[in-house]
Amino acid sequence: MSRSIDVMIRDRRSALPMAAPTRIHLASDAADLTPVATALAELSDGELCALIDTTDNLPPIVPGLLAWIGHACDWELNRRACVDLALQPPHLAIPPEEDALSIAAMMTLRMKFNQDARGDAGAVVALFDAMIRVLTGGALRH
pTM score, two decimals? Predict the structure, then answer.
């Protein structure tokens, strides 16, 4: 079972909001994933595919976290293609014993993207910030 929300999402090619709200489907047991969904919508298709490729090619130190990031990117690509799936919360992919390591890994990824990427990494860093908030229950610790 999932729940739907309507969100105004800015088109990446324009500073103006889209004319109509975009429907976002979240799993019914999800923590508030709206900021994650909104941040995903700000990424280009190329950025989403690059994140999927990155998660597929990193060492599987935190496999649950990598699976959740990949799922979120896949979910957004499917949403853009009008495939109606629910965005799943991280606890379905990340076992409790990986929680602390997943938070540390996400903070490291965020820091790496923020330092190494060109000026266009802001949308990816914003996504990582939203994911960190979900993983930490809202407390930003970076």
Answer: 0.76
Question: What are the two backbone dihedrals, phi and then psi, of residue 58, each rounded to the nearest 5 degrees?
Answer: -85, 150
* CA neighbor of 75 nearest in space, from 85, 90, 64: 85
CA distance 20 to 22: 6
Please choose, from the candidates 78, 80, 142, the residue with its C-alpha nearest in 3D space to the C-alpha of residue 114: 142
Q: How many whole angstroms separate alpha carbon 78 and alpha carbon 65? A: 20
64 near 93, Cβ under 8 Å?
yes
pLDDT for res 63: 95
Among 28, 21, 78, 25, CA closest to 49:
78
